[in-house]
Amino acid sequence: MTKIQPNIGVEYAENATIVSFTDEKILEEKDINSLQESIMSVIEQTERINLILDFSNVRFLSSAVLGLLIRTSKRIYEHDGRLRLCNIDPKIYEIFKITRLTKTFDIYKNVESAIKDLSQAK
Amino acid sequence: MEKSCYKLIMTSPTSYSIVVESKPSAIVSVFEQIQSKLVNNNFGKDDIFAVHLTLEEAFLNAVKHGNKMDPSKKIKVDYSIDADKIEISITDQGPGFQPEAVDDPRFGENLFKPGGRGLLLMNSYMDMVKFNEQGNSVSMVRYKEKPYLTKSLDQ
Lengths: 122, 155
Prior knowledge:
CATH architecture of chain B: 2-Layer Sandwich
CATH class of chain A: Alpha Beta
Number of domains of chain B: 1
Oligomer: heterodimer
CATH superfamily of chain A: STAS domain
Mean pLDDT of chain A: 91
CATH architecture of chain A: 2-Layer Sandwich
Radius of gyration of chain A: 13 Å
Structural class of chain A: alpha/beta
Strand content of chain B: 15-25%
Number of helices of chain A: 4
Number of helices of chain B: 3
């Protein structure tokens, strides 16, 4: 796994790039801005990227991170890529449900199921 | 002299007031103070998560939208905690806003906009959220989550 800054780790699997958040809490605006830069640079590096965002380390986030995810998904779709989220803690999943983002993001139980979905999708 | 044992039970709420710098990181120490008092009053993980989230959202709103990132301005946090509930007020030095004028981020095009979810989360995680008339101070209350019943009601 390649570590970019302290914020994300990047792994490459069959047909997907897996970005995992390394911080337990994602709150500070400077951290969110730095995350955004790191993720956008990963997206730019691969044509029509299949990106999996792995939340397994994350135990707390605020609505500012939801904004980051929306900006990320827009950028990916502009590049004809696909985005999957996975390993979301139940308390954080509740935030996605309240904000109805469960209807805009494809959320999977773990990395394996997200990879499987991407390999089956056309 | 015979020794007696007393267990101190605090029944009345204890109130605190803190004035902090208007910068996002200032909420960290405020939450740490509040968290230790929530733990002391036997609030559970769900309550602490909810208070943490709403405090972050309300404080960031005050810094960004209220005080417009002006470092010369301050933010006042008042809170009281007792065995049943926590009450928090956050007041900025901005001109205020009308919460009714904020679009619901769950519908239509708003679902795809990056911002505007803080107020929704505050309303969802607290039992009461009320703004003053000027709109520069928000008061929130959360009652302690009750433990699961171990027996059904008809037993």
